[in-house]
Design a protein that fits this description.
This protein is an alpha+beta fold and about 500 residues long. About 15% of the residues lie in helices and about 30% in strands. The chain binds zinc ion (ZN) (4 copies).
Length: about 500
């Protein structure tokens, strides 16, 4: 299903213009549009530890700094640490030992104790003097960061700054509308609803925030630096005792330089994400809540809704020449699908760029922030990517059978006495197409061809005031990578 070993030869155009393989696209059943990772909102559904599968609410995860309290990584090699048990001999009383009955005196039994150990590099918590624990899970000693006070001071300061900015904003809004007693909802990152309520009620800000602002001392850079120890350049270095850079950076609060100061690293939590269409706010994917499950409650992937196109083979594309392209088309839906190939220029232009008429300023700022990350080639409707090779679409409408999982086991493909269709097999068919390449195509240049599909899609989403199953004619534009242009006249 996913082509891990192959580059993506066939790319689909998302409704925003991005070109992506079908396996990384979504399909919104409400907008009937293809959506990519940039056209959807990513939301954190739940936090969990991928090792012990414990679930926790986001407030608790924030409190625990997004780390699991019972699972640890090795500070030396970053492999997961295991809990090992051993029997601890109680300290022997010399007087009781004289009894000579072989038993440890005073009815003291050997106690089972636990420690953390790495099965990969053999590092153990005992190496650095962490005491053995009487219980197998939890209770490992926690270290507080040496900079905890300063970090908390900074946090308080920036919370106060944020609060002040919010109050100013609310004040402005209040003046603008001059409506009293009307509540304004603002997005809230830090839970400062109390302060907002105070401000709306016209009360002065709470004492805490002004205190944090007044009592804050900013950090000052100093030119004086501690001298290096005298033997800094002469002392022999024992690499076995010094930590590596990754080991230091794995614990940013401590950054131990000595191996003897390494400490187990609490495992980072993972999140389950759900994804929402930015145009209509409907969920496109929603995972099951249980962290042990890899299933989804909602999974609107393009792979299940949009016809899949694969290249079977393609003759070498030559300047001014004609070549044959064999494509395989598959219908992933449980309904019969009619399909027609079009030139990309036949797709109406208003479908090319769809307007998201929501909060346009938010959209713009989002787009701006996303622009840095957008690395995939995108498709501008006004300047399509240089397409050297033209596909001549056959003017026929093809019919694809619904997907039938049982038919996957059938061996025989049905050959059709047609010069367009090579064979049919369950919900798939192979198509023979003719390519013609421009004479101006340069040898060695990338050979690409664009193709548009018009396909019927049966929407099974119940909508008020409409019949339950409705057929739509949808279009998708594809860019096929056909290798490089060969030498002319062969
Ligand atoms: Zn997109
Ligand atoms: Zn855990
Ligand atoms: Zn290790
Ligand atoms: Zn949508």
């Amino acid at each position: 299903m996913a082509y891990l070993t192959q580059p993506d030869y066939v790319k689909y155009k998302c409704s925003c213009g991005q070109l992506k393989p079908i396996t990384s696209l979504y399909f919104c059943r409400h907008c009937l549009k293809i959506r990519c990772g940039f056209c959807i909102c990513h939301e954190v559904d739940s936090h969990y530890c991928a090792y012990c599968l414990e679930n926790m609410p986001s407030s608790e995860a924030r409190l625990k700094k997004n780390r699991c309290s019972s699972c640890f990584d090795c500070p030396s090699c970053f492999h997961t640490l295991s809990t090992r048990a051993t029997l601890a001999q109680p300290r022997q009383d010399p007087a009781a030992g004289a009894g000579g009955d072989g038993k440890v005196g005073d009815g003291k039994q050997a106690k089972r104790v636990y420690y953390l150990s790495c099965f990969n590099c053999r590092w153990t918590a005992r190496d650095v003097g962490i005491p053995d624990q009487p219980v197998a899970s939890g209770g490992w000693p926690e270290r507080t960061s040496p900079h905890a006070t300063r970090v908390n001071q900074l946090l308080d300061y920036y919370k106060a700054v944020l609060q002040q900015e919010k109050q100013e904003k609310i004040e402005k809004e209040r003046k603008k509308f001059a409506v009293r007693g009307k509540y304004i909802t603002l997005t809230d990152k830090t839970g400062l609803t109390g302060a907002m309520a105070r401000s709306i009620a016209g009360l002065p800000p709470a004492e805490g925030s002004s205190l944090a602002l007044a009592g804050f001392t900013p950090a000052v850079a100093s030119e004086e630096v501690d001298e290096l120890p005298e033997d800094a350049f002469t002392k022999e270095v024992n690499l076995n005792q010094i930590t590596s850079m990754p080991q230091r950076l794995a614990a940013p609060e401590w950054q131990p330089t000595q191996v003897s100061r390494l400490h187990p690293i609490a495992k980072l939590l993972s999140v389950k994400r759900s994804q929402r269409c930015r145009a209509c706010d409907h969920n496109l994917t929603k995972p099951e809540y249980n962290p042990g499950s890899i299933k989804f409650k909602i999974e609107l992937l393009a792979y299940y809704h949009v016809p899949e196109v694969k290249i079977i083979s393609c003759e070498m594309v030559r300047p001014g020449g004609k070549s044959t392209l064999l494509l395989k088309l598959a219908n992933p839906t449980p309904h019969e699908m009619t399909l027609k190939l079009l030139q990309p220029s036949e797709v109406p232009i208003e479908e090319e760029k769809e307007k998201v008429d929501k909060d346009t300023s938010l959209e713009k700022s989002l787009d701006k922030s996303l622009k840095i990350e957008k690395q995939e080639p995108s498709w501008n409707p006004r300047e399509p990517p240089t397409v050297l090779t033209q596909i001549t679409p056959p003017g026929v409408t093809l019919t694809l059978a619904p997907r039938d999982d049982a038919a996957e086991y059938d061996d025989d493909a049905r050959h059709e006495p047609s010069h367009i269709i090579l064979w049919r097999k369950s919900n798939k068919l192979a198509l023979r197409l003719e390519l013609s390449t421009a004479l101006s195509a340069a040898e060695g240049a990338p050979a690409r061809a664009a193709l548009a599909l018009q396909y019927s899609y049966r929407n099974t989403v119940p909508q008020p005031g409409a019949p339950p199953d409705r057929d739509h004619a949808l279009r998708a534009t594809l860019l096929l990578d056909l290798g490089t242009v060969g030498a002319a006249g062969l």
